[in-house]
Amino acid sequence: MPRALPPTVPPAARRRLLAAARRARAAAYAPYSRFKVGAALLAEDGRVFAGSNVENSSSPSSLCAEQSAVVRAVGEGARRFRAVLVLTSSPKPVAPCGRCRQVLAEFGGDPQVLMATTGGRLREARLAELLPHPFRR
Ligand code: ZN
């Protein structure tokens, strides 16, 4: 039997996520790649947590925008997420990297992943589509 999909993200919440991701993207620290990313998480309780990528001269120490948003959310007590919006200036929407998919999967559920561009393009997927078999101990 197919699993019931959670409801999609309503338009007002999408606008809040986009606005938060836009602000976060403007604050991104990306002096090496010059690829600024903003992310915004919608928690189950309706709160929105944004994050930006924070690069480091030692590149493995860099932090993606999605992870930055998760760190902020978890620090404020949020553990369940309905959606994440990722905003880039790429011509085509960009999906979260593999590490971010695993970080998002840690908290269960099946958040909607909204991949947006500053040019107005949007692609959507469920996290389970992007990471069908997350690592679990
Ligand atoms: Zn990532």
Describe the protein in words.
This protein has 137 residues and is an alpha+beta fold. It contains four helices and five strands, in the order αββαβαββα. Strands 2-1-3-4-5 form a five-stranded mixed β-sheet. The protein is globular. It starts with 10 loop residues before the first helix and ends in a 7-residue tail after the last helix. 34% of the residues are buried. The structure holds zinc ion. The site of zinc ion has 6 residues, from helix 3.
Distance between the termini: 26 Å
Percentage of residues in strands? 15-25%
User: How many β-strand runs?
Assistant: 5
At the first level of CATH, the class is Alpha Beta
Detail the poorly predicted runs: none
> What compounds sit in this structure?
zinc ion
Overall CATH architecture = 3-Layer(aba) Sandwich
Number of helices: 4
Task: Give the strand order, joined by hyphens, for the main sheet.
Answer: 2-1-3-4-5
The major β-sheet equals:
5 strands, mixed
Q: Radius of gyration in whole Å, from Cα?
A: 14 Å
The best one-word shape is: globular
The CATH topology comes to Cytidine Deaminase, domain 2
Approximate helicity band: 25-40%
Q: Work out the count of structural domains.
A: 1
| Mean pLDDT, all residues | 95
CATH superfamily: Cytidine Deaminase, domain 2
Helix and strand string, N-terminal first? HEEHEHEEH
